[in-house]
Design goal:
Number of helices: 13
Structural class: mainly alpha
Distance between the termini: 48 Å
Order of helices and strands: HHHHHHHHHHHHH
Radius of gyration: 26 Å
Helix content: over 70%
Length: 290
């Protein structure tokens, strides 16, 4: 009798393990397929950029070439002011990221910790900004920048990109989860509201800061439409805008087009690979769970 019970118990434990192993295997296969779907176009772009120009349009299509060369990259970097565009993109993305973190966290702190009338409706109005397509704001924003004499300037590129409802939402979700007792203890000790925000809340919000910083940096770096409109001079172009103007002169020179695409996307890819853990932790820690 005891032997039968032991066999039934062993069989009962084996079935959940088997189901868990099967689900884990299916998840691994699915993730592998998704990873391949993401990485194959990237590898194809790199492969094409390293081919001689004459071999980029050969039929049948092949990953291999008679020899690999860096001529496409040499032509891209020698015929365009790409280093200036790199600087413009990095500078505008960094300044915009810092401003978004400061302004969004201040707004979120006020919405989360300061009781005032219409606080709820104000928060929903801010969230409504997530549903407004940026394209419909192009004309009024350009008119505003023109009246402020900020067209073709760094501030003209940066200022319209620092209004981030998503950043406010992320910070507010994080601040709402911080115990009220911390703020009360600090105020009892004589700390001001700003000191509570700066010396207590912000150090605790490192995961939220990381998530907002990376999302904002990548978004500003990749933004094409607004810099394309407001940056009227070649010296003020960001990298996506500058590379687009170069590509229009390439015609069907696919190696150079792919080389410019790789040159533009590589910095963002490196940032994401190095800080992907911070993105995941920031999103998970602020309540943005699926």
């Amino acid at each position: 009798m005891s032997s039968l019970a032991s066999n039934l118990s062993t069989r009962g434990q084996a079935e959940p393990r088997k189901r868990f192993s099967l689900s884990r295997t299916l998840a691994l296969v699915l993730l592998t397929i998704m990873a391949l779907l993401w990485i194959i176009p990237l590898l194809w772009a790199v492969d094409t950029s390293l081919k001689p120009e004459a071999e980029t349009t050969t039929v049948p299509v092949s990953w291999l070439a008679s020899h690999f060369t860096g001529d496409a990259y040499h032509n891209v970097f020698s015929t365009a002011d790409i280093f200036r565009w790199y600087f413009n993109s990095a500078f505008t993305a960094l300044i915009a990221t810092v401003l978004v973190i400061v302004l969004a966290s201040l707004a979120a702190f006020g919405l989360s910790r300061i009781r005032f009338r219409a606080r709820g409706p104000l928060f929903w109005i801010i969230l409504a900004g997530l549903m407004v397509p940026g394209q419909i704001l192009i004309v009024p924003l350009f008119t505003e920048m023109q009246q402020m004499n900020l067209v073709n300037t760094y501030w003209g590129i940066i200022l319209p990109q620092i209004a981030s409802p998503l950043a406010v939402f992320i910070f507010k979700q994080f601040f709402d989860n911080i115990p009220q007792e911390l703020e009360e203890a600090a105020i009892v000790d004589g700390a001001s509201r700003f000191r509570v925000y700066w010396q207590i809340w912000m150090p605790l919000a490192r995961t939220a800061i990381s998530a907002v910083a990376i999302i904002t940096f990548i978004g500003v770096w990749n933004n094409f439409l607004w810099p394309f409109i407001v940056a009227t001079g070649v010296d003020m172009m960001t990298l996506p805008v500058g590379l687009a103007t170069v590509q229009t002169s390439y015609g069907v020179r696919y190696a150079q087009i792919m080389a410019s695409a790789v040159a533009g996307g590589l910095p963002v890819l490196i940032v994401f690979l190095f800080f992907q853990r911070q993105i995941i932790q920031g999103v998970a820690g602020t309540g943005l769970k699926g």
